[in-house]
Write a structure and sequence with these properties.
Blueprint (H helix, E strand, L loop, with lengths): L1 H7 L18 E2 L2 E2 L6 H14 L5 H15 L6 H15 L12 H14 L3 H22 L3 E4 H8 L3 H10 L4 E4 L2 E6 L4
Antiparallel strand pairs: 1-2, 3-5, 4-5
Helix pairs in contact: 2-3, 3-4, 3-6, 5-6
Amino acid sequence: MFLHKMLIANIRDDIAGRFRKNGEWVKVANHIAPNPKEVVERLEKMLIGYNANSHENIIKRISLLHLTFEHTHPFVDGNGRIGRVINNYLLIREGFVPVNIKFIDRKMYYEAFKEFGEKGITKIMEEIVGKALTNSYHKRLAYLEGAHIMTLAEYSKKYKVSHSNLINKANRQTIEAFLEKGVWKIGVKNKP
């Protein structure tokens, strides 16, 4: 709750740092968040489940945690920001790189919530988190290795390969491309 207070202070001081109270119902798209009286219990159950499944794949664990947190919508405002901070805190704590799952594929992101709300499954979110992790690693490695960073369009022209083919491969994460500020880029290693 301290984190929520820090992120929401000076934006909405009246709600900063506290869970939703009785009468504070939240609707996001077609989803009405659970009763405010259920927030604490749902979050406790979410964290117990996350920690109890430490043997499972991190992608599955983060996907379930994120969907559960956002479905619960414990705050009146700022849930998305807090959810993404929690994801990254847990990823970093377990030795992974931080990610931005929402902006990899916004439409797919909302489809993941629909799938979770209707069927209670996390398959779409797992794909999103997996791609986001791969994207994040590709980006960090390219910069750490001192590679020459270029857009896929530039790469396509320079190496005379199909731009649309490169974009398809980037979306599937079958090449070491990464999204940076909404533009697909790739690191080209300098040859000695």
